[in-house]
UniProtKB/TrEMBL annotation:
Protein known as: Zinc-ribbon domain-containing protein
Pfam families found in the cross-reference section: Zn_Ribbon_1
Organism of this sequence: Lutibacter maritimus
The keyword Transmembrane is assigned to this record: yes
Regions crossing the membrane: 75-96, 102-120, 163-184, 190-213
Keywords assigned: Membrane, Transmembrane, Transmembrane helix
């Protein structure tokens, strides 16, 4: 029997990575090592360069389904379906007449499906490199209480943002529709009903979507996988390995919960955008080593 040098959990002799916190196990004298006497793991000893045996053992500890694979398969199936529609239209079967407008729509959806399959195939490979341990730095699983606090934090933020957008859209809609209602003599009732319908539609999404994502997040696996350029957080995958992209800031946070704060940026057609990740963790996990590893160039 030996103990994890990071969290103090009891482990079997052949274990290379802690099944509790994901830290690499050092070869130390087990008789003098107890759960209370935790030795700090150096950043250079974090699992960046792993042997094939270590990768297999780590992969056995991380039982996680790659959720990007399902998206890739659905996109491929969709592309095959619309490709068959186009093929049937080109061959001109009398038994299956297809209108030209259907062909044009099928071409559009075929191209869209191929683009989605290509994009998410790349994401699938990146997430798999975390699951296999190839690009993994740290991993842990949230407790039910930690996941509940994290989901409520996301819910509160999302709800606040949606209410702000709802107020802005409502004011603009009332002003624009109000002008038409006052100026146009005919169709005032129709414009008023259209305004009410728009406000109801926007309100439904503003208040309904946070509840939807809250329930979805509560059902997710609670797994946290952190890599140099990727992160998997309770069912959602993030990556910042694009050109002109990277990490801006990494730090340990105490509020609204103990965990890791990552601010990363990426550049696309809308120029440079930033995303902030608040990742919860158990208080006994030493995140300073992880911060140092992520800040290391």
């Amino acid at each position: 029997m030996k103990f994890c040098t990071n969290c103090g959990a009891k482990l079997s002799e052949e274990t290379k990575f802690c099944t509790n916190c994901g830290a690499k196990i050092l070869d130390v004298n087990n008789e003098n090592n107890t759960g209370e006497e935790k030795e700090q793991t150096k950043v250079s000893e974090l699992p960046n360069d792993l042997t094939l045996t270590e990768l297999k053992k780590l992969n056995n500890a991380i039982t996680l389904k790659n959720n990007q694979t399902g998206i890739v398969k659905k996109a491929i199936y969709s592309a095959i379906f619309f490709g068959l529609v186009i093929l049937v239209a080109i061959m001109g079967f009398d038994a299956l007449p297809i209108h030209p407008s259907i062909v044009m729509i099928s071409i559009f959806f075929l191209l869209m499906s191929l683009v989605i399959a290509f994009m998410f195939r790349s994401r699938e490979k990146k997430l798999q490199s975390l699951i296999s341990g190839e690009n993994l730095i740290a991993a842990w699983t949230l407790t039910d209480n930690e996941k509940h606090n994290y989901v409520n934090f996301l819910y509160s933020n999302e709800k606040s943002k949606n209410i702000g957008l709802l107020i802005v859209i409502s004011v603009l809609a009332i002003v624009i529709f109000g002008i038409f209602i006052l100026v146009i003599d005919e169709g005032k009732l129709f414009m008023f009903l259209a305004l009410i319908g728009l406000l109801v539609f926007v309100s439904f999404f503003a208040f309904g979507m946070p509840y939807y994502y809250r329930n979805r997040n509560l059902k997710n696996d609670g797994k946290i996988l952190i890599g140099k350029n990727f992160a998997y957080i309770n069912g959602f995958f993030h990556n910042w390995d694009f050109p002109l992209s990277g990490i801006k800031k990494v730090k340990v946070i105490k509020e609204p919960f103990y965990g890791l704060y990552i601010k990363y940026y990426y550049t696309d057609r809308t120029f440079t955008n930033t995303e902030e990740l608040n990742i919860p963790a158990s208080e006994w996990i030493d995140l300073s080593l992880l911060v140092a590893a992520l800040n290391k160039k």
